[in-house]
Each structure stands twice: as C-alpha cells, then as structure tokens.
User: Fold these one by one.
Assistant:
Number 1:
Amino acid sequence: MGDIRLYERILALINKQEEWRGHCLNMIASENITSPAVRKALASDFGHRYAEGLLGGRDEEGFQIFQRFYQGTKFYDQIEAIAMKSAEELFGADHANLVPISGAVANLTAYFALAEYGDTITGLSIQCGGHISHTHISAAGIRGLKDFPYPFNYEEMNIDVDKAKKLILEKKPKLMLFGGSLFLFPHPVKELKEIADEIDAYIVYDAAHVAGLIAGKQFQDPFSEGADVITSSTHKTFPGPQGGMVLCKNYLAEKIDRAAFPGLMSNHHLHHVVGFAISAEEMKKFGRDYAKQMIKNSKALAQALYERGFNVLCEEKGFTESHQVVVDVSNLGGGKEIAELFEQANIIVNKNLLPWDSLERTANPSGIRIGVPEVTRYGMRESEMTEIAELMAKLALNKEDAENIKNYVIELKDGFQEVKFCF
Ligand code: DSN
C-alpha cells in the first residue's frame, strides 16, 4: 500500500538534494550540469513515449528516416534525426546511434556488433583508468570477452606504446579499446593504428570522459587518428543529460544499429535524446570556448594545489590536458578520508585508485580525482580555481575546521548560480 509519509519524504529529499548540491562545488569528473532547456526536455512528454524502430536510410538533406513500430512519433523522429546529424558533425562521424542509454551500454553495443563470444580485447586496467565495462567484471564479461590490459607507464600516465605493440602482436585482440575514467592525456591511437591494421583489430575509443573536449576540438580527434568506433556517455564533459551513444564509420553503421536495436534495447529514452539534441546545439555554438576553459581551469587548479603542497600527478607534463586533476593523497590518510573530509565542506570529489594501487585498495585508494566540468559550466575561471585549491589546502593540509570552510564554499558558489555556455 502507498505510504503518504514515504511519498512526502521522497519529495522532501528531492528538495534537500537540490538545496545542498546547489551550494556545493560539484567536482566529480564524470558529472556536469544541464542547461534549463535540457532540463525542460527531460521533464517533457517525450519521457512518456515509445519510439521503437529500425533505421531506414536518409532523406535528401541527410536526415535519418525511421521505420517505427509505434504511432505518435512524428515530432520525435524529427528531433532524433537532428540529434544524429549534430552528433556526426561534432565528432566527425559517418553515423551516430543514440539508442544506448548509458556509456556502459554503448560499450556493450560495440562489443555485440564487433566481437564474438570468446574473443579477446585489450584496454586499460581499472587501476590505470579503464572503465569497468572494458573488463570481464562488467560489459565485456557479459559478452564473454577475455580482456588483457595494456602495459602502462606511470610517469607518463599513459599506455606504454612499445610494450603494448609487442603484447598486441602476441595476443591478437579483436578490439583495442582506448579511453577511460582516469584520463589526463590523449591516448596513443595513431601510434597503435598500424598494429591494429596488421592484426585486423577494430579500434574502439571510449570518449565518455572527454566527449566535450573532443566536440570542442581541444583534445585528440579519434576518427582522424584511426578509430573505427567512438562509444560515449553524454553527460560528463559533454553537458547533455545522462545517456549513451555510439558513433562509427560507415562500414560499421549497420552492425552497430542492429546491435543497438533489436539487439540490446527495445525502447530507448526519448527525453534523453531530446535533451541531447539541445545540448549538441549548445556545443556547436559554445563548445570550443567551454572546452578551452575547462582545460585552463584544470591546469590552474593542478598548479595551485601543487604550489600548496599537494602531490598532484604529472607535474613534469603540465599535470593534465583534460578536465581532470589527479592527486595522490596516500600521505594524508588516503582517498576515502580526503573525499569524505571535502564533502563535509561541500566540496564533492571521488576517491580513486591510482595505477600502482592493487584492487584490494578500492575502499580507500591512494588518490582523489577532481573534475572541473561543472564549475566551468557555472562560469568559474582560473582565479576561482586558485580559491578552491586554497580551500582544499586549508582542509586537508592545515586541518582547519570543515564547517568553517563550508561557509567559504557556499559564499563562493553563491556567485555562480547560472549555467553558462548555453543559449
Ligand atoms: N563511473 C564513472 C566515472 O566516474 O568515471 C564512469 O562511468
């Protein structure tokens, strides 16, 4: 039986969440904030509807034609067609499929399309930044794929190209994955393209974290470097609603589409695609400026943290070329302790395994990962990054009172309430 008290409690918790996170510095690297127009799309009638169907070619302007199994899709079909074309333009893809409902499902779609049960794949290990869906414990395992990790260079925080070449020639994976969740520098796609061709492997680039940087032309361009497929979520540096997509070259379009529908999904999430369509227009107009500012901000934050005594990774490489800053806090009690301490002061980050951690350290790993997508989208710039670094230093290094720092955080955030880089 429905319980009015629980119902009211849920409504109250929604308000509490909005109130609290509205006064936080949200610095989870995989999160972002959507524009008011995207929020409107998410709450629209499209969230109630179905639009199952197959793709049926393009019209003379290049917009997708759909063969739906449901009536009532005449407006939605126009939006999905626009969204597909925009995604193709932003990422230099021949074809976009917007059916996957998350980044992990986008990866599963690629696995279903391009690999067979029992095939071998390679990607980064979880400690070195690979996403769980790149491994046997998640989507790759569901597809029955055997994974082995690329050799990794700790100083470079990147794949060791020479060692990787030897291992790839030996193990001959069907798929070579790039991208991940701990992602400071572009991955060596073009450096490993030749070897992929030699063993007939597909290159799948998981752009979930860096999609906004790629669309804003401030990171590597996976397709021009040799990727066959880009998989992604749509809500990290790319400031859309939560969801997924697969972008590909023409020769894989049919396989990807069939893997998405009817392969893995029946209906997709229409309100998500509508929100994505809006955010894609925002990125076409403001994406370059937004992506540039994200990178300026992450570099400024890393430098300021380093100057205050934090052990920020990769000082010799300029710390980062992405939206992330990674700090080894093992000397300060570990990632769990520091992330929880920051949370007491309304600074939200996540603890993170570092490449030299064993998986047993998952509960309290050596690192924290700090992301700037959302604070950048609220209009913060380099000077605010210095202020944030100062607050973090007061908390973690000087052991100042978290309640007191929280007041500074709230005051800082109060000056940045409006979402920028949108119409
Ligand atoms: N778990 C997400 C991240 O934080 O990177 C990716 O799905």
Number 2:
Amino acid sequence: MKHLLSIEDLSYEEALSILDTAHEMARVSDGPVKKLPTLRGRTIVNLFLEDSTRTRISFEAAAKRLSADVINFAAKGSSVSKGESLKDTAQTLQAMGTDAVIIRHSASGSAHWLAHSPWMNGSVINAGDGTHEHPTQALLDAFTIRKHLCGGAGDLGGMNVGIVGDVLHSRVARSNVLLLSKLGANVVLIAPPTLLPVGVESWPATVSYDFNREIPKLDALMMLRVQQERMNDYFFPTSREYAQYFGLNRDRLTLLKQNSIIMHPGPMNRGLEITAECADSARSVIVEQVKNGVSVRMAVLYLLLAGSSEIASAVNAEVNA
Ligand code: ASP
C-alpha cells in the first residue's frame, strides 16, 4: 500500500491490519514515553487547504510520535491564498523531498489527483476531500466500535450502526458505510430525504426516516454534523424542526440499549444534531474517538512509510526499554 485515498481501495485484510497496528500504537500512546523512532529522518507535510482542528493536530501528533519531521502547511498564510494551484504547491513539496503528504481539500478527488500527478513521488493520505471520503475518520470510528463492543479484536460482524443526519454532505458517512459494511456491520442511514445523496440505494446500507424506530436496535449511534457551510439551499424548514426529528436528545437517549455508544466525528453543533447533555453523557465516546484517531493515524503512517506490519516487537522493545 503506497497511498490511503479512499476506503474503497482497502481490502478487508488491509483494513483489519490497520486496526491491529493501531491497537499496538495505542500502547505507545498510553506508555510513559509516547514515541517510537520508526520514521526518524522522514518528512511529512500536513497540507490542510480546508479548515480542521482534530484531524490536523491528530496527524501532527501521530507523525511526531513516530519521530518524523512535520511541516504544517495551511491555505491561510501560504501562496495558496494568492491563487497558487495545487500543481505548483505539489511541485514545491516534491522539491523539498517530502516522503508523505496528508491532504485536506474542498474538492472531491483532490487526494487522488495529487497521488497520481507526475509531481508527487511520496505517499498521499486523504484527510478529507470535499464530500467524497475521509478514510482515517472511518478507521478511527471502526477502531472505537471494535474496542468498546467487540473486545478489541477481529471484525465488526453483526454490529448494528446507525448514521444519522446530513449524509448528503458527509465524507465521514460515505467512508464509514464502506468500511463498516466491509467489516461485517449492518449500517442504517437515518436522515430526511433531502439530506440523502442521489444513488444512496446502491450503498451497502439501509435507509430509514424514522429515528425513534431505529434507536433501540443500534449498538453504535453516530451523529453527523449539519454542514451548513456546504448548504446552498434549504434542506429542512427550521433548525428546531430538524432537532425535533433527527436530533439526539434526552428522550431518545432513553431508547438506546444499555451498552450502546454515542459517536460524533466533530465539530459538533450542540443543540442542533445533539444536545450538550447527550454529547457529555456516560454513553458518549466522542472524546475517546479523538484519542483513538492518533493511534489509527500512527498505524497508517507506519504501514505506508515503514512498510512493515511487524509493529508488535518494535512496540514491545520501546515500552519495555
Ligand atoms: N470533521 C469531519 C470532516 O472533516 C466532520 C465534519 O466536519 O462534520 O468531514
């Protein structure tokens, strides 16, 4: 594997190998010295041309924990804000001897374009391209579900996962549907018809418009952010009505099974798709998702750049040193 561009490209075995490697990486993050020497001397560029908090700092922390040199590059403050093209940016990064580029961009397909451009020799990791995919978010979500509900090993066979809300604009939803179904989970998309993409019937998921009817069946409930910045039309009458039919609130929380978990990729619109009470409840694993993101991204960087899956012995040597 040279690049991580979409979940679609990953085999079942590759997906599981990333989750298993992330499990080992979590031991490093939980240890006293949160660092492995594995990527010493490698240069990784964080090319974030669209806003991000969690994903950007998570990749930075992951690269640093593997001892790589990290260059952070954002649109604001760079020549991209002067209109420089992705091609010229790519040539500049290549000239600096970059081993991997982590790219976030508002255009769907930008990561694929960069990976296959003649100006890029290194690995490319998609950190979110438009409304297309966000593969590392799906991997960290699968890791979190596996850890809480499947004993931290194997696949997600038989798990029932509900993904609720603005599926139309969500790269997180698309990547999750592809990955969770690949790993054996049953996925149901719960949304108003206006927030479902054309062709959703061909996705490996079922669709429901009735949130209350689905909740009691779910093992994991994943709420999506209403992506107002991508909306150039009216998709629901009022925020109040959206929250009433598709928001997670105290009444709906009581319908959830005893051990089910609540997830959200962040950033949250508290009071719209999820109330503060639910976001901060004991069932919520939202903050833990952020923590798991670092381990998963360490695993991805390790597998792409160090090219080996013999991580357990390296971690043992460090943790026991
Ligand atoms: N942070 C996620 C993303 O970049 C989810 C969101 O923005 O709603 O896609």
Number 3:
Amino acid sequence: MKKLEMVYEGKAKKVFKTDDQELFIVDYKDDATAFNGLKKGTITGKGVINNKLSNHIMKLIEKEGIPTHFVEELSDRETLVKKVSIVPLEVIVRNIAAGSFSKHYGVEEGKVFKEPVVEFSYKNDALGDPLLNTRHALALEIASREEIDTIIDYALRINEIMKSFWKECNITLVDFKIEFGRTSDGTIILADEISPDTCRLWDSTTGEKLDKDRFRRDLGGVEEAYAEVMKRVLSHD
Ligand code: TMP
C-alpha cells in the first residue's frame, strides 16, 4: 500500500491518501491539546499507544457486529483505514458524572448513573463544539433520523462492549467520545480513535485517573498512565 499526499492534519493524527481510492492511512502523533487547542503539549509515546489501543478496541467492536474503519495496522504509528466522510458529531457516552457534565449540571464527579447518557456535540472548533440534541442535528442537516438512530444504537452497544473489556483490565469506563463516518456507499461506520485521549479511565481499585485528564488538569504522570493502560491491555490477552 503506497502512502501518498496528506489530506488532513488534526490535533493528534495525520491522514494520508493511498493508491486505493477507498483507503486512507492514519499516522498518530505524540501531540496533545486540550480546551479546543488552547493548551498544547507532547505526551511521549502516546501515538504508538493510541494506535495500538484503538486498533485493539476497534477489532473487538467489529467482532460484535458493529462496522468500523479499521483495516490493518501497518506500523507502530500507522494504520490503514476505510475512507469515510466524518459525520460532524462528537458522540459522548457517560456512565459516571465527570468533566463537562459535572460542570454543566452541578453534579459531583463520580456519581454513577442508573442509565448511560448519550450526548452530542457539534464538531466545529470555531464554535467551540457546542452541545446539541437530535432535533438540532436534524435541523442542521448533520445526519438523517435513521443515521442518528443507528449512531445512538451503536454508541450504546460500544459502551457495553467497552465497559466489560475495561473491567477485565481493572479499569472503570467513566465516559468516552466517538465519531462516525460515512463510507462511499453511505454506510455509517465507527471512525476516528478510541484511546486514553478520548475515554475517561479510572483504576477500579484506587480511582486513579489513567487518561488524558492527567494532561488536561496538570496531574503529572501522564506518560506513565498511558503506559499503564497499554500494559494492562497487553497482559489481558
Ligand atoms: P467532557 O466531560 O469534557 O465533555 O468529555 C467527555 C469525554 O469526551 C471524555 O472522555 C473526554 C472526551 N473528549 C474528547 O475525546 N475530545 C474532546 O475534545 C473533549 C472535550 C472530550
């Protein structure tokens, strides 16, 4: 597979064309940002860990019958994926109150929900990724009703798959963000990444944060947390 010109550079990844029209290569960087790019830094080794972790989880999800963009891991930092056009929704699933939920609704971090919350943000950096509901998304013609139903169904099923996977690693899945894309024939598939950048992961015994909140909140031990998550996933197999 030939890596051709870069089509997109995001905050944490670069995306390249290939000699196959339907396939892209993603290349994971060590760059980290928070607060819509206001805070910038580097998490050494993050690109390798996120590439491998995301692929591991995508394979699990695919095995459970949810289509994903994953095709093949090419190197430590590079993965071959299906080309999609991203649906501009950040789909967030929450099992426990934390982060912006706690802030918006005045709920203490750590409150366990009876039912998971599914939340959408409009993926638009210029607007600061505002929260929106299904009817906003329909009005803005971001996705059809049928696509939104599929996305919510997939998001809740991915939550169940991931909750039990992380539990086996003695990690509690607090919340996570996922993104979906449309393939050239219009099929909705899981895209982007699933990693400690995009999930809140708490050690089930100690409650210690093992995710990007260590970077966002200047808690220290950022690289160590990512390495610990990787170690637990590798020893889980
Ligand atoms: P929040 O509580 O800040 O809204 O974050 C919810 C989840 O989404 C959390 O697991 C972190 C993840 N997330 C991203 O992946 N990208 C983002 O830009 C933000 C704000 C959150």
